[in-house]
From TrEMBL:
GO molecular function terms attached to this record: ATP binding; ATP hydrolysis activity; P-type magnesium transporter activity
Membrane-traversing stretches: 60-80, 86-102, 255-273, 285-309, 735-758, 770-787, 799-821, 827-847
Gene Ontology cellular-component annotations: plasma membrane
Protein name per Swiss-Prot or TrEMBL: Magnesium-transporting ATPase, P-type 1
Enzyme's top EC category: translocase
EC number per UniProt: 7.2.2.14
């Protein structure tokens, strides 16, 4: 076994050869055999554990207010010397923790199975064996081992902790690690230095870390640490990375607080009424605790995760992969979707159309210069570069370029510069070639090539050129300006200052056809209540044309410069009335998303480039196609396996189904629990004993909740899927205040029957058993009544409810009856019970009809 040093700042300062020696590697890469052996030794390079460890899952299962409440109840039992009560509560606690643990594990497994469908790869240099030449190939990131030589380019996620051994303009976004918003430059150490204080590893220029992403430039690097041994891995083990509160988190928090507020109001009232009436304050305290237990939808976390896990599986069948589980509900709530243009609305591949001179006449020169630049650039070719390369490749042009030219410099492309420059050297002269957005290139030109001659670029000529570009753009054609300049051989570096005094050669035009299904997808999204906005780095005319073709009303196109100039308040107004934004720099895309969210919108963002990463992170739901750069996929919450917005519309519907089923549980359970508490309150005012024991309340709740897990598989009304849906604390309060009292009314009529017909006023055992049965059955029934517009749930829901009902009704006859202090019920009572339940269903249906009229859209 070779001892690997891990990431230390010293390693960042060491000479390259020392680095390779220490890692037992070679600049030519490891052999496949070595890599295989090391993979066995170090394990897969997974940054995040695929699944939380058992201790962590147990902790998650234990940590719940419900368990705390129950434990409190157990302590009260123990304190008043009720051993049987204390033991039973302990059993309940264990049962509910087990249920949560089991359900959580199952969900995680389901989600894990979905997530493996998204893989990231790294470019690695390896050899087939000793003496074989080095070859570069893509391997799954998980297969990397210490000592591997990897190549990094823009859009890559740094796959492991690496030491850079060669770099050109490498710029890395480390925000995932250090929170530092600005990308940092990484380079080789200038010379070994002595430092007073060792720097943080993240600040070491020659080290790059797993989980960060390459914004620009290129590098060759050697892997130092993989998997859990990486810096990111150590952070992931400590805590979950903090993330801004999503619309889902906020919704759950508000709903949680609504329930807590109900509890804070009800519990003291119950305590006061019961204590005053009975004079037995110990019993009143226990009763109050029972009320608190009764009001908590204790299985909420379980039901939510079950729903989400089922949603994730359903979405994966629809080719949408969920990386962050909660994102499903953000998808359901999303009401505005921002999309990048290329690849989302238009085809993934742009085609080279033609090369023209400054007067718009067909002329190959612009394409030839552009080809030269693409041929020599180090940066990974993007779509436009590929179209240019594809144009002349195969004509033996490569041989020609390599024989005639050598490379002398490069100022790489970046999304804010919107241009790229390459310098080539030939026969004692340096030729600088720039290509990019005409608005960036033309102002840097002083001359133009016209009919083989270099002429001055007059103001009139500039206007003509602008008209030419606009005419192309208005047809939806993308245009790159190509300019060049020749000068004497230079020994020093070329910088941005050299991109001036250029001679405009001409333009290369590309067609970027709109995807076939794009217009239909935009329409489907609109039908689902989602507005589409286009956020592109491209020219405003191209953007407007594409918008028109896909059916997004363009209106006034707003430019990146306008976004930059607006203050936060101004921007918030601007983003509401604008649908197409053009010439955006990456940070501006993110700012627009932030402004939309500040307006209370739930914003999704679809993008595939490094320039979309910031916006993907900012959005409530960040969405990337599977063909996106690794950095974009890494930042996204959802990955589309099929590059089609139509898939997303299905995904949204699935998300709403998931949310709908979750909210059914929350609303209905909270309402009927509230009803129970009202009943308890009324009862405590006139009953000489407790109408139900806290313990029995807990048993009823557990039976009910176990059945409701099946809700995850319930149908949702089609109408429910047509509008954005979110957690709605005010709606919940309203719903509770209406349906709680309705259920309470039938509880009280059961009391009347028990009291007057069966003389249970002197038989607390019968009274409690009777109400236990009524309360459980009515709660199970009302779920079916209120779950949607119809009254029948899907098969699993009905079966689960029937099973829970049977268990509850038979409980008094079972050996466990003594444990929960119940006795068999008279057959006549069961008939009465059936009548009460039947009238409850009818009343429920009537009130539902009235409620649906008053609050359309609730179901
Ligand atoms: N390879 C390249 N060389 C030079 N300039 C380029 C290159 N690729 C793009 N550009 C210029 O940069 C501009 C912005 O491109 P960028 O990729 O940042 O936009 P985007 O928001 O991703 O666009 P889209 O919405 O089309 O995906 C392009 O309109 C073009 O003018
Ligand atoms: Mg793009």
């Amino acid at each position: 076994m070779i001892g690997f040093p891990g990431v230390t700042p010293e390693l960042g300062d060491a000479p390259v050869l020392t680095v390779f020696r220490r890692l037992a590697g070679s600049p030519k890469g490891l052999t496949e055999a070595e890599a295989e052996e090391r993979l066995r030794e170090h394990g897969d390079n997974h940054l995040e554990p695929t699944r939380a460890g058992a201790p962590r899952r147990i902790r998650a299962a234990v940590r719940s207010p419900f368990v705390a409440l129950l434990t409190g109840l157990g302590v009260v039992f123990a304190a008043v010397g009720d051993v049987r009560g204390a033991v039973t509560v302990a059993v309940m606690v264990v049962l509910s923790v087990l249920l949560r643990f089991w359900q959580h594990t199952r969900s995680e497994r389901a989600v894990g199975a979905v997530r493996v469908r998204v893989t990231t790869t790294a470019t690695v240099r390896r050899r087939a064996g000793d003496g074989y030449p080095a070859t570069e190939r893509e391997v799954p990131t998980a297969d990397l081992v210490p000592g591997d030589v990897v190549l990094l380019g823009p859009g890559d996620v740094v796959p492991a902790d690496v030491r850079v051994v060669a770099a050109t303009d490498l710029v890395v976004d480390q925000s995932a690690l250090s929170g530092e918003a600005l990308p940092v430059r990484k380079r080789l150490p200038s010379r070994p230095r002595r430092r007073a204080k060792p720097p943080q590893p993240v600040d070491t220029p020659a080290l790059a870390f797993a989980g960060t992403s390459v914004v620009g430039g290129n590098a060759t690097a050697v892997v130092v640490a993989t998997g859990a041994a990486t810096y990111f891995g150590s952070l992931a083990a400590q805590a979950d990375a903090p993330r801004a509160e999503s619309s889902f988190d906020a919704g759950v928090r508000r709903v949680g607080w609504t329930l807590v507020r109900f509890m804070l109001v009800m519990v003291p009232i119950v305590l006061a009424v019961n204590g005053t009436v009975t004079g037995n304050w110990a019993q009143a305290a226990m009763f109050a605790v029972a009320v608190a237990v009764g009001l908590t939808p204790e299985m909420l976390p379980v039901i939510v995760t079950t729903n989400l896990a089922r949603g994730a599986s359903a979405l994966s069948r629809r080719q949408v992969i969920v990386k962050r589980l909660d994102a499903i509900q953000d998808l359901a709530a999303m009401d505005v979707l921002c999309v990048d243009k290329t690849g989302t609305l238009t085809e993934d591949r742009v085609a080279f159309a033609h090369s023209i001179d400054v007067d718009g006449r067909p002329d190959g020169e612009a394409a030839e210069y552009a080809y030269l630049a693409v041929h020599f650039q180090t940066g990974r070719p993007d779509r436009l570069d590929e179209a240019i390369a594809g144009l002349l490749a195969g004509d033996g042009e490569d041989v020609l370029t390599d024989a005639l030219f050598t490379k002398a410099g490069e100022i790489g492309f970046d999304h804010a510069r919107r241009r790229a420059t390459v310098v080539v050297r030939r026969a004692g002269a340096d030729i600088l070639v720039s290509k990019g957005d005409p608005d960036e290139i033309v102002p840097r030109c002083t001359h133009a090539r016209r009919a083989g001659e270099v002429v001055g670029l007059t103001a009139a000529a500039r206007r003509d050129v602008a008209d030419l570009v606009r005419a192309y753009a208005e047809h939806g054609m993308r245009i790159l300006a190509v300019a060049a300049r020749q000068g004497p051989v230079r020994l020093g570096r070329y910088t941005e200052d050299d991109e001036s005094g250029l001679v405009l050669v001409g333009f290369a035009g590309f067609v970027d056809p709109v995807r076939e299904g794009a217009a239909a997808a935009v329409e489907t999204l609109a039908a689902h209540g989602i507005a589409v906005k286009i956020l592109t780095g491209d020219n405003p005319h191209v953007a407007a044309r594409v918008a028109e073709q896909v059916g997004v009303p363009a209106g006034d196109v707003v430019l990146g410069a306008d976004v930059e100039a607006a203050d936060d308040a101004g921007l918030r107004a601007l983003v509401e009335r604008t649908t197409v934004f053009a010439k955006l720099a990456p940070a501006q895309k993110a700012r627009i998303v932030t402004a939309l969210r500040a307006n209370g919108r739930v914003a999704g963002f679809v993008g595939d480039g490094v320039n979309d990463v910031a916006a993907l992170r900012t959005a409530d739901a960040g969405i990337a196609p599977d063909t996106a750069t690794d950095a974009a996929k890494d930042a996204a919450d959802l990955v589309l396996l099929e590059r089609d917005l139509g898939v997303l519309a299905h995904g949204v519907a699935e998300g709403r189904r998931t949310l709908g089923n979750t909210l059914k549980y929350v609303n209905i359970t909270a309402a009927s629990n509230f009803g129970n508490v009202l009943t308890l309150l009324a009862a405590s005012a006139f009953l000489p004993f407790l109408p139900i024991l806290p313990l029995q309340l807990v048993v009823a709740n557990l039976l009910y909740d176990a059945a409701q897990i099946a809700l995850a598989w319930d149908r949702v009304d089609a109408a429910y899927l047509h509008a954005p849906r979110r957690w709605d604390a005010r709606g919940l309060t309203r719903f509770m205040l209406v349906f709680g009292p309705v259920s309470s009314l039938f509880d009280l009529s059961t009391f009347a029957v028990l009291w007057w017909v069966f003389g249970a006023g002197t038989d607390p055992l019968l009274f409690r058993t009777g109400w236990f049965a009524e309360s459980l059955l009515s709660q199970l029934l009302v779920v079916l009544v209120l779950r949607g517009r119809g009254i029948r749930g899907s098969r699993p829901v009905e079966l689960a409810a029937a099973a829970a009902a049977l268990a509850g009704v038979l409980l008094p006859w079972s050996p466990a009856a003594g444990l929960v202090l119940m006795r068999p019920l008279p057959a006549a009572f069961l008939l009465w019970l059936a009548a009460v339940l039947a009238s409850y269903v009818v009343a429920g249906l009537l009130v539902k009809r009235w409620y649906a009229r008053r609050h359309p859209g609730w179901w």
